[in-house]
Amino acid sequence: MPISRPRAVVAGAGGFIGEALVAALTEDGYDVTPVGRTGAVRWGDTAALAAAVDGAALLVNLAGTSVDCRYTDANRDEILRSRVETTAQLRSAVAAATTPPPVWLNSSTATIYRHAMDRANTERGGELGTGFSVDVARSWEREFFSGELPATRRVALRLAIVVGDGPATRMLLTLARTGLGGPQHDGWTPPHHRYRGIGDDPTGTRPPWHRTRGRQRFSWVHIDDVLDVVRFLIAHDAISGVVNVAVPDATDNRTLMRTLRRVVGMPIGLPSMRWMLELAMWVLRTEPELILKSRWVVPERLTEAGFRFRRTDLETALRDVHAAPALRRRRGPRTPSARS
Prior knowledge:
By secondary structure, the protein is an alpha/beta fold. It has 12 helices and 12 strands. It has a 6-stranded parallel β-sheet with strand order 2-1-3-4-5-10, with helices on both faces. The two termini are 23 Å apart.
């Protein structure tokens, strides 16, 4: 009689992190059921969601529209909706399950913390910020932790910038490759309302700015360590609540951009003032918040529990990403069998 494999439900399986996680869980012996806008289990299909979640050994939710865009009113609304509504649908499915999953890991973001250059934010002592991105994260986590799910342990992953073959790293490499890889200086910006608060309890009105001189902190984590954190949290039943997912030692913007220039082989990098970045990011159809906000978080709970990060050298991590397109061209297109 064949031995049944544990089943994992992964929402947002088609994204950068989701694809890597599906491959890792499959390698670990799980049968993975994806949830998305297409496929057998789709958002809005209450019966299919309930059947998928019932009896699953693991639920991971990474769903959410990419923030690599301009914060137009339509995009702002969709960024919030795509996180809160999908989380609410999964929570309803877990609450209705006869055999609910014992652990549910839900994506969140380290952007929830304030712009910090004086000290790092921990899970216990960190200070939450204000404005659009923070309000999205607050609403997301509030929906995730609402209600009683006594049989399911819930963990919110406050992810730093994930270094890997994804949109954030690609955008940074593009800046360095085009000669804009100097330090980025925050400062005055023409007033706009794209960063204003959102949700039931909006905070902030105009975009904040600080005289950083390129010393804003940059917290990051490699995709391989994200996968290891998932495995670690599955195995450690005592951990619930919010968990910071970032390497213990954050770098700063000057070091980040200098490293990027070395990786792409660009000898020069023009320093950029805030007003210049506003123009450049308008062309790239994204927002300067990624590189101007000082994200300084440390993984206090993971470190105390004994987790050790494997990929802590930023230059090595960025060189791996920079080399990825050439490796893909040599290997050919990825097939489903290669992913499993």
